[in-house]
Amino acid sequence: LGTTTAAASHLSTGIHFSELRLSKPLLRALAELGFGSPTPIQRDVIPQALKGLDVLATAETGSGKTASFLLPALERLCQSANVRARKRDAKGRLLAGGRVATKALVLLPTRELAVQCHAMLRDLARFTMVTYQLVAGGFVSQDQASSLRSQPDIVVATPGRMLDHLLNTQSVHMELLEIVIFDEADRLLELGFREECMQVLKCCSKGRQTMLFSATHNTSVEELAKLALVKPVRVKANAVNRVAETLEQEFVKAPSEDLREAVLLSLCTRVYTKGVIIFCATKKAAHRLAMVFGLSGLSFAEIHGNMAQGDRVQALQRFQRGEAEHLLATDLAARGLDLQNVATVINFHLPLDASRYIHRVGRTARMGRTGRAVTIYTPAEYGKVKQLGKQCCSKVKSKVLKRTVASDAIEQWSTKIEGFRADIEAIGEEESLERELRLADLFAGKSENLHKHKAAIHARPEKTWYMTNGEKRKLKEKDAEDATARGEAAQEPPGGQSHRTAEPDDEEVREAKRVKRLREKVEQKRAAEKAERQEDDRRIRAAGRRAKAKNGARAGKGEDPPPRDRDKKKKKKKKSKGRGKGKQ
């Protein structure tokens, strides 16, 4: 958040938060959190953000980017007339005064980052009258919709769930929004959220302030900045695309791919025994390591996309409390998470590119503290490691070491892991059976609910989305291919010695253009239908107004009503006469 006495010199600014013209409630919250001096990114961003300017900021991981946009957003809201008119009752409940509207939106790529940002926002806003709400997947959508209808001042959200509410939840809108913030913008783009972000912006007011933050800077981030920002102030507090200065880096060679797990187990039992995050390339690899660690008697927690949201939060909490010494993770945990007491980050598999390496190792050596990054590689991966070293290790002041693991220790752990094979297969079969039973129960409950609440379900309005699942999947695949191509291009030797190219082939280009044309046609068709409906409604209303005015004019002049009205009156008279004769 801010610098403390233990922070490194490169993060110290020598000034106090009070010099940034923050109000007393925010200064009080900062003091209770133990932070008195802003980091360079906070010192440079907060004054510009308070002026209402668009900001494009890049800084190293763990340098306090989150507070650099939360503090100015809170300060601007605290100075607004609506917030200043609020009071608290005897029980401390907030009494809203004046018009209520959502004024700030923070978009983050993952649920864990959104939860972390919301927790920091709660700590900073504890002495203010500002309201806030978390909107992310994995939580009850109906509760979030109810909170959004009450128009909280700040919404912290993931793009998909936020866009879902904007499109399909009644009385949820962002027309009065004043501030939009993209955190971890490069990760938002990597996960394929570019279209969601642009759709969310279309639902917001045009006179907004937009801020974009990232630890790495690439062409995708620059393209998003051109579309979303207007004459932004560019802030680069530290060297871009570089690891922290207090990070020690080690590279460990595994004799072969089959012995990679043995090397990892040897390191985790002899050297790195506490506060270790281990990054794997896939969810399957992370879960296999979890089974190996469990059979080896090591304390661990795992976090990846195949886990339920509650299990993921619980795993992070266990690691934070020290109940688990090792956290087995995919790149899901590589961005922005501020985990306490992380001493070592181990790359079990090599990251795809330098930016992912920077984000992974950024989980340690945060806020000026020291840390260590260990990367395991095989002889076949030496070229990638050499390129990674040129990009991330050539201009750092900290140590860069090569470590070797004793062959007898590797052989010993390799034999142990081989002995676990039958147990791992049995655990896998048992988990597969449990998964099938759980899905069967889920589908049975879903079928029962559909039958029981059929009328209520069919009465609900149909949900809409700006593109189909197939189009979304193809866009994600294309974004992943582009990221891989950029990584391969960065690894190519200079001078054009390699024939590989980072450009997609003609077939992929044609497919992307086709998907874009289809999406544009669908949007044009929807816009035309909407315009046609509005025109029909306008004509009907105009005709009704003309008829009403014409009848009123005739009544004022004492003229006979039009023929149709005369016929109606004659029919009514005949009916009344017939009823009179019947009674006689």
UniProtKB/TrEMBL annotation:
Molecular-function GO terms, alphabetical: ATP binding; hydrolase activity; nucleic acid binding; RNA helicase activity
Basic and acidic residues composition bias: residue spans: 475-485, 520-540, 556-566
Domain Helicase C-terminal: 246-418
Region (Disordered): 475-584
One Pfam family, short name: Helicase_C
UniProt similarity note: Belongs to the DEAD box helicase family.
Protein name as catalogued: RNA helicase
